[in-house]
Amino acid sequence: VSYNKLKNVDHALCNIHHMRELKALKEIEEEVWSGNLYVLFNILRRRKNQGISSITNDYMEKMTKLYDKISEKGFAYHESKEELPRGKSGRKRHRRGHNLLRRLRKNKSEILRFMSEEKVPFSNNQAERDIRMMKLKQKISGGFRTLEGGEEFSRIKSIFSTLSKQKINILEGIKKIQNSELELGLIPP
Fold first, then answer.
1. Please, which residues have CB within 8 angstroms of residue 115's CB and are 6 or more apart in sequence?
2. CA 168 to chain centre
């Protein structure tokens, strides 16, 4: 199931991905608006990292208006460009920057959700890093020989990841887990 098809959830999009696209447009296509939006995203990312209390309603409104203003300049830029030849299907083609602008307009609430909701991060890079080891294991060895092996790998990786996120030394954390399981009688002494 595609992420966007999930119902009854508030979606949020990864802005690091948008920043990469904006940076490429600025450097390769030399689209000035994309550099301005990149700077805006960078400012918002730093502000989010300072904590949600630093993003007031007035600040959100100001930044949202700036987001819209920069986007409109981008649309004006693309409207001033010569139209691309139609594709094989006869559909109108758009440049990469124009396609990005259309996505930024269509998904504006999902893109800017991080400003209004404390638990929504600016990017989902941490989630991508969390699954990277599993994907690497699949790529190198083709997966796991048994379902139990995959589950055990996931369990161990999850423990390591959680300890790291909570800034607990991994060896100390494992000792604490072992001691608590001993006390509960879950593992023999």
1. 44, 48, 55, 60, 63, 64
2. 25
Statement: the pTM of the whole predicted model exceeds 0.70 = no
Averages of pLDDT over runs of 10 residues in the chain (189 residues) are 69 90 95 96 90 80 97 96 87 92 96 89 74 69 79 82 82 82 60
Contact of 170 with 163, CB cutoff 8 Å:
yes
Is the CB of residue 58 less than 8 Å from the CB of residue 103? no
Cα dist. 132→27, 109, 139, 157, 165 in Å? 28, 28, 10, 11, 16
Count of C-beta atoms within a 10 Å radius of residue 38: 21
Asked if residues 50 and 110 have their Cβ atoms less than 8 Å apart, the reply is no
- 150 CB-near residues (< 8 Å, 6+ apart): 143, 144
CB 13 within 8 A of CB 107: yes
DSSP string, 2-51: -GGG--SS-----HHHHHHHHHHIIIII--HHHHHHHHHHHHHHHHHHH-
Quick one: tokens of 108?
């504006």
